[in-house]
Amino acid sequence: MLQLVLNGLANGVLYALPALGISLIWNASGQFNFAQSDLLTLGGYIMFTLFGTLKIPYVPAFLLTVAVMGGVGYFLSWVYFYPMLEARVNPQIIMIGTVALSVFIRNFILVVWSSTPQRYRNVFGSRALQFGELFVMPHVLWIIGIVAALLILLQYFLRGTMMGTAMRSVAQRPAAAWLMGIRNNRMISITFMMSTAIAAVAGILIAPINTLSPSMGSTMGAKVMAAVLIGGLGSFSGALVGGILVGVSEILFSAFISSAYRDVFVFGLLVLFLIFRPGGIFKADISEKI
Amino acid sequence: MKGMKNFFREYTVFIVCALLMVVPSITSQYVFYVFERGVQNAFLVIGLVILIGYSGMMTLGSAAHLAIGGYAYGIYCLLGLPPVLSAAIAVATATLLGTLLAFPAFKLSGPFLVVTTVGFGEITRILILNLQSLTGGAYGLSGYPVVSQAMQKYLYYGMVALLLLVILAVRRLGRSRIGLALKAVRQDQVAAEVMGVHIKRAKVAAYALSSLLAGLSGVFLANLTGYLSPDSFTGSESATYLLMTVMGGMSNPTGAAVSSVGITALPEVLRFLYSSRLMVYSLALLIYIRVKWGRKRRVALVKPSAQGAPKPKGGES
Amino acid sequence: MNMRTDREVVLKLSALTKRFGGLTAVRELDLEVREGEICALVGPNGSGKTTVLNLITGIYPVDGGEIRFLNRPIQGLAPHAICWQGIARTFQNIRVLSQQTVFENVLLGKGYGNGGAGILRTLFGTRGHCREEQQNAREIDEVLEFVGLSNLRGELAGNLPYGKQRILEIARALVTGPKLLLLDEPAAGLNSQEILSLMDLVTRINARGIGVLLIEHRMELVGRLSNWVYVLDHGVKIAEGRFESIKEDPMVIEAYLGRRRV
User: Fold this and answer.
1) Structural domain contains residue C1
2) How many CA atoms lie within 13 A of B151 on its CB side?
3) Has residue C111 been placed in a domain?
4) Confidence bin at A289 (pLDDT 50/70/90)
5) I need a surface site. Which of A29, B189, C141, C250 has the fewest CB within 10 A?
C-alpha cells in the first residue's frame, strides 16, 4: 500500500510540474496554456536525443535540455504571447492559439522523431531498493527528491527575491507594476521561460515511468489540466496538491478497482470538484465584477 | 463595392455547393472518397460554428460527439434495427448526450469549460475502448450495413444538398434572435440576462444543435468508412476540428464548410505534405491568429477586465 | 409625502440587506418607487447604490428583506425572468455588445426564451417567423426614432461615441417593454449638451408612464428630474424626501462633504 502511494507520489509530482507551469502563466497573463504538456513531451524528446542518441552524460544533458526548453519558452512568449496580450486580444483567441501550438508541437515531434514510442536507459538503476517489507524503485525516490528540491527553489525565487516579487506584482496589477518601472514584457517572458523549463524537467524525469510518444501530451495533458483545476487554477500549492491527488488516486484506483477506467475516475473527480467547489481546493477566484 | 461584397457573401454558398456537386464526375475514386470525408467533416465543423463562433463556448471534445453518432448508428444496426431508423435514433442519441454538456456550461466558462469538454472527450473514448461487447473495443466496430458502393455517389449528392440547407439554416439562425442571444453569451452574459435573454436556454440550444450536427456527421462517417475505431476520436482530432473552425472564420458557416473540405482534401493534392500536414496547418493557423489579431502595439499591458477597460478584440460576427 | 401617497407603488424594497463577506453593502433598506414617477437614489461613492440595482435585477442574491414588484415578490428570480416582469436597466460601465450593430443591440432587448424565436421556426424560416421578425424590426425602429439613433441603425455599437452608447443602452432597455426603468449613472462621462438631451429623453420616457429609478451623482440632474430622492451612505438610508428638503438635510451634507470640525 505504502509502495503504491510512493509510486503515485512520483507520478503525481510529475503532473504537478506542468500544472504549476499552467498556474504561473495563468497568474502572469490570465491565459490558459494548452500546450504545456506538449512542451513537456518535447523536453523529454530532446533529452532522448541528447542522452539516448548522442550519449551526452546524464547531468549535462539534463541541464542542456532544461536550458534549451527555457529558450523555447522565452521564444514563444516573445513571438506569440506577449504581442497578443499587448494587443489585448480576446483570451479565447489566445487560448485557441495555444491549442494550435499544442497540435503543432505534437506533429513536429511526430515528424522529427516518428510515432514509435521511445525510451532510454534508466540512469537511476532498475534494481528495487528494499526497506524492510517495502520495495521501491530508485527512480521513484529520485523523482520525488528532485521535484521537491526544485519546488523549494522555485518557492524561494518567487517569495524571496526581487525578481519574484516583481513577477507577482505583474500578475496582480500589471498597470501598477508597469508604472513602478517593472518591465512587464520581460516578466511575462521569464514566467514562460520558467514554466517551460519546469515542464521540461518533468518530461525528462518521466522517462523511467512512461515511454515517450508524441501523443503523451494529449493523454497526460488531459490529466494535468484536471490536476490544475482540482488544485485551484493560479495557486502554487494547488498545482502541487492537485497533481499529487490525481497521481496517487490514479495509481490506487487502478490497483484496487480497475486500471481500464482510471482516467474516467480522474475526470469524474474533476467533475465533482467543478460542481461542488469550482474554484478547486485552493480556491481560485473565478467571479466577475459587475 | 459594398453591394458586390454583400452579393458575394450571400451567394458563395451556392457556388461552393455547385462545385462540390461536380467533384464525383471529375475525380478518381480515392479523391472522391476524400471529398466525401470533407463534406462529412463540414457538418461537425458547422456545429462548432454555432458553439464556438456564435456562443464562444470553446470545446475540445467534439470528436466525442462524432464518435457517439457513429458508434450509435453501428450498434443500433447490429442490434437489428433498419439502417434508416438507426441513423435517426443515432442522431437523437448524440444530440441528447451532447446536450448534457450544456449543464456544466451553465456555471463554467473559459478554461474551466474547455477542460470539462476535454474530460468528456476522454471519458467517451475510454468507454468506447473498454465496453468491448458493444463497441468492439480497440479492434473497432465493423460489420454493420453501410450505403453500398454503387449508391455512394447518391449519398454524396444527398450530403451536399443537405449541407447547403444546413448552411442556409445556420446562417439564418445567426441573424435571428436566437443567434443574437448566442452571440451575447459570448460577449456579455450579464447584460444579456438582464435584457431578458434566457441564457441557460440559449446554451442548451447551442449544445443541442451542435451535437445534432456532430451526430449526423458521425452517422455519415460510419457509412463512409464501414469501420470505426477509438483512435479516430482522440483529443487531437477534436483539436483539428477546432482548427478547421477557426480557419473557416469562426462564425461563418460557409467558411467552415470550405475549410473543412479544404483541410481534409489538401494533403491529397499536396502529397509531400501528407505526414506533416497537421504540423503545417497548426503553424499556419498560429501565424494567422498572430497576424490577424496580435498586430497592434500598445504601450502598457493591462489585463482585460470587465470594468472600464476597452473590450477585448477578436471573434467577429 | 402627501403628493406621493395617492399613486400606486410599483417597486417596494423592505429591509433589503446584502452582505459581502464581513461588509454589509446594503443594510435594511426601505424604498418605494410609485407609478409614473422619477425616483432618485443618490449617495457618495461606494455607498451601495449599484448594489441595490444588482439586487433588484437579480444579479446578486438577496441576504435579507424583500423586493416586491407590482405586489409580487421577485427576489430569487433569475435576471431574465425579472426583466420579463417589466424591469429594465442600464449599466454604469456601458455594456453594449460592441461587435454587433445598433439594431442588433436593441433587438437583444426582445430577449430570448420568452415566446417566439423558436429554434425550428427559425431554422426553417417559416412565415410566422418572418412576420415576427418584421414586427420586431418595426418596434425597434420606432424606439430608435424615439431616442434619436435612427441614422446609426446599421453602425457597429463599438464604433459609437460614448454618449450614443449610453443612449443605445436606454433604447435596448425600452424595447423590453418595461414598467420600471433603472438608470445607473446615465450621465457619467457625458458633456453638458449630451446631459441636456439625456434629461429630455428621461422626461419623455417618464411621460410614457414608465417609472424611473435614477442613480446619480450630479445633484443638479437629480434636482431637475426627480420627484423623490433617497440618500444612501455606507449602505444605510440616511434621508428621503423632496430634493429641496434633502439638500438642506445636515446628515446628507455631512455624508457628501464630511464631518464639520468643531
Assistant:
1) no
2) 9
3) yes
4) very low
5) C250
Least confidently predicted of A202-211, B238-247, B306-315: B306-315
Q: Residue C215: which H helix or E strand, with range?
A: strand C211-215
Q: CA A286 to CA B2: how far, in whole Å? A: 43
Q: Write b or e for each residue in A81-100: b if 16 or more Cβ atoms lie within 10 A of its Cβ, otherwise e.
A: bbbbbbbbbbbbbbbbbbbb
Look at residue B144 and give its three-state secondary structure.
coil
The string of DSSP letters for C29-51 reads EEEEEETT-EEEEE-STTSSHHH
Domain boundaries, chain B: 30-293
Which residues on chain A are in Cβ contact (under 8 Å) with B120? 267
Average pLDDT, chain B: 85
- Residue C216 sits in which domain range? 9-257
- Residue in chain B closest to C110 (alpha carbons) equals B196
Which residue of B178, B201, B311 is in closest CB contact with C122? B178
Are the C-beta atoms of residues B314 and A95 closer than 8 Å to each other?
A: no
Which chains border A (3 or more CB–CB pairs < 8 Å)?
Answer: B
CATH top class, domain B30-293:
mainly alpha
Give the CATH number of the domain where residue C27 resides: 3.40.50.300
C-alpha cell at C164: 450614443
For chain A, the C-alpha Rg in angstroms (whole number) is 19
How many other C-beta atoms can be found within 10 angstroms of the C-beta atom of residue A117? Answer: 12
List pLDDT tens digits, range A167-188: 777 777 777 777 777 777 788 8
In a domain, C4, yes or no: no
Residue of C nearest to B176 (CA): C122
The rounded distance, in Å, linking the Cα atoms of B312 and B304 is 6
Q: What is the pLDDT of residues A22-81, one digit of tens each?
A: 988 888 888 899 999 999 999 999 999 998 888 888 899 999 999 999 999 999 988 888
pTM for the structure as a whole: 0.87
User: How many structural domains compose chain C?
Assistant: 1
Residue C262 belongs to a domain: no
Q: Which of C97, C112, C123 sits opposite B177 (nearest CB)?
A: C112
Q: What's the pLDDT band for B167 if we cut at 50, 70, 90?
A: very high
